[in-house]
Automatic annotation (TrEMBL):
Keyword field contains Zinc-finger: no
Record keyword Zinc present: yes
Protein name (database record): Aldehyde-activating protein
Ranges in coiled-coil conformation: none
Pfam families named in the record: GFA
Keywords from the UniProt entry: Metal-binding, Zinc
Length: 118
């Protein structure tokens, strides 16, 4: 599967966005945050991520080295994306694939990443 454009957002619909991701590059991370939330992530350069609605509905959480701004809906609590700096220094959007419209995550084969060791 190549890069595709998807719509996505939180559970209550307050936060909506459009982004371009390659679901074949999805990961499942076991870090202290992703593991607890059950996140499956795919990444997009911030230039390919557009928040369409809900900026005022977003809260933010940072931990560890504060490199990633974990964004969540203050109404329903769902973290549908995060913004951070990739290993190459580029600004990236980390998309919670479970929050993309029309995606059955059970058909995906995310790469397992050992985030606990970073």
């Amino acid at each position: 599967m190549a890069k595709q454009v998807f719509g996505g957002g939180c559970q209550c619909g307050a936060v909506r966005y459009e982004t371009t991701v390659d679901l074949d590059q999805a990961i499942s991370c076991n870090c202290s945050r992703c593991g607890r939330l059950g996140l499956i992530l795919s990444f997009s350069p911030v230039e390919e991520f557009q928040l369409q609605s809900g900026e005022d509905a977003l809260g933010e959480y940072q931990f560890n080295q504060h490199r990633i701004r974990h964004r969540f809906c203050k109404t329903c609590g769902v973290q549908s994306f995060a913004i951070g700096t990739g290993p190459d220094g580029r600004q990236m959007a980390a998309i919670n694939v479970r929050c993309l419209d029309g995606i059955d995550v059970h058909t995906l084969h995310p790469k397992q990443v050992d985030g606990r060791s970073f």
